[in-house]
């Protein structure tokens, strides 16, 4: 025959909002930092190439991501700054900064993909190489770096979406430095006994008469 015990059986606790907030915070920090790094790295690499026809034959040309467009790098810096600013603001300010982070990621993706069909940077190089302002590049090719920049923008977008969803439960950097509004207790000065020998000597050092009324 079984017996009844008053000791409760241990239950497996489901992940609460605090645990979800910690996980989302870690993922957002990693995604945002990695995404910004990928974008800044990709914009310094070669994105496109082509040839320009000169008197001696075909002249090879190449353009880096920063030559094609400066938008992805600028948005990556804005996104990284927004990721840091998320922890310095609260309530509506945090929501707005998280939205800016998400928009920076989306804008980075769009500008990187649009750069695939942009030949203006190579056309300028072709005009400089040939001395003909109407010269254009021929047989334009692309590398995989624009797609790397788009992936970086996707990570920034993910960080922004996580901040919008879970940012309310994330800690705030300035919270530990803010006052809670409670009055500070006054420091009570200790009562000095003038009849104590050490206090008499201190009064004599100050030039006071310890025997005076």
From TrEMBL:
<keyword id="KW-0472">Membrane</keyword>
<dbReference type="Pfam" id="PF09534">
    <property type="entry name" value="Trp_oprn_chp"/>
</dbReference>
<feature type="transmembrane region" description="Helical">
    <location>
        <begin position="68"/>
        <end position="88"/>
    </location>
</feature>
<feature type="transmembrane region" description="Helical">
    <location>
        <begin position="95"/>
        <end position="116"/>
    </location>
</feature>
<dbReference type="InterPro" id="IPR019051">
    <property type="entry name" value="Trp_biosyn_TM_oprn/chp"/>
</dbReference>
<keyword id="KW-1133">Transmembrane helix</keyword>
<feature type="transmembrane region" description="Helical">
    <location>
        <begin position="145"/>
        <end position="164"/>
    </location>
</feature>
<protein>
    <submittedName>
        <fullName>TIGR02234 family membrane protein</fullName>
    </submittedName>
</protein>
<dbReference type="InterPro" id="IPR011746">
    <property type="entry name" value="Trp_synth-assoc_CHP"/>
</dbReference>
<feature type="transmembrane region" description="Helical">
    <location>
        <begin position="25"/>
        <end position="43"/>
    </location>
</feature>
<keyword id="KW-0812">Transmembrane</keyword>
